Amino acid sequence: MIDERIKEWASPAQRESIDAVNQYGGVTAAAKATGKTKGTISQNIGRAKQRAARHGYAPENHMTHPVPDGFIAKGVSTYFDRDGNAAGQWVKSSIDQDRQRELLEQWVESVSADIPRLKPLPTPKIELNDRLLNMHVITDYHVGMLAWKREGGANWDLNVAKETLAKAFRHMIQTSPPAETCVIAQLGDFLHFDGLAPVTPSSGHILDADGRFQKIVDVAVKALRGTIDLALAKYKTVHVVMAEGNHDMASSVWLRSMFAALYENEPRLTIDQSAKPYYVHQFGKTMLGFHHGHLAKPSQLPGIFAAEFAPIWGATEYRYAHCGHLHHKHELRDYPGMTVDQHRTLAAKDAYSSRHGYAAPRSADTITYHREFGQCWSSTTSPEMVA
Known about the structure:
- This protein is of the alpha/beta class and about 375 residues long.
- The protein has 2 domains: about 5-95, no CATH class; about 95-385, Purple Acid Phosphatase, chain A, domain 2.
- It has helices at about 10-25, 25-35, 40-55, 95-110, 150, 160-175, 215-235, 250-260, 300-310, 310-315, 350-355, 385, and strands at about 55-60, 65, 70-80, 85-95, 130-140, 180-185, 235-240, 270, 280-285, 285-290, 320-325, 335, 340, 365-370, 375-380.
- α1 crosses α3 (about 40-55) and α4 packs parallel to α8.
- It is globular.
- The mean pLDDT is about 90.
């Protein structure tokens, strides 16, 4: 008999296999009754047991104290008395990143229903070229970071970040061609940290921060809303990518959902809601792919996008992937089937970057694509240009 409690951590298919074995008295009988192979049933049960064990439940190994939802068992120590009976147990746990993300997405979905919707903005009346798309790239902006000019060459705080983005984006759209379509490619790490404590989500490194997290969120939301409204004032249609970064894995979730709800009534705006950290947009014969750069190297991106977005890959002739993460720019890399571009950041250098000798210029890119011929124009905006 399979322990019924294992089903708490099992998928629907795995629960069916557990029920079948318990009902018919064994794997062989269950396979005969359900029409499944013995291997499939055994595999389903084995995977359910493995997942239960990851959460601290494996009674055959004296693990009987599961950790709360959203966590995984990091270590279990059991001590025994002289007769070999379990006398006590210590359970160490850590955050289950996948489950925490799932719980966060459920919470964001529930609260998004209460967000007030904005009224649609007037469509621009100027003549625009329907064969062109302007892509404005903002990456690694690190709202909430604190940098000191004497240490890194420039100051950076919440006020500087807000003013710099407004000036830079206004310059980017004013100096770009009169395209009808726009993509705002926010490639991740828009927030410097991801919660109340100023630390990186995965490694826990302490960060230089400016202000409380609530204040940082307020500035980030206002800055992004101002950027989107500027784009809607110039372009007929606007598509927004808010990519997951390694600094804002959770915040990217609520940013996407919140802005999708906020602009739900705006027919000229779309926001990519992909739960995967890879995003794509098709414009005629051009495929635009986006990834922060924290999970895959540039050389891996063509294969990932070809596999994840095969229909769009097959329908396009010109394919470009864009990533950030490293804060500096590489030359365009032409891989089989796709060109990969690495982008700089507009943000100043913090203490960590300064002390490690990172010296890349600060900038943001605008790239124009033709519906039939791919990339046809580009420009760079630096903080000095808009100071």
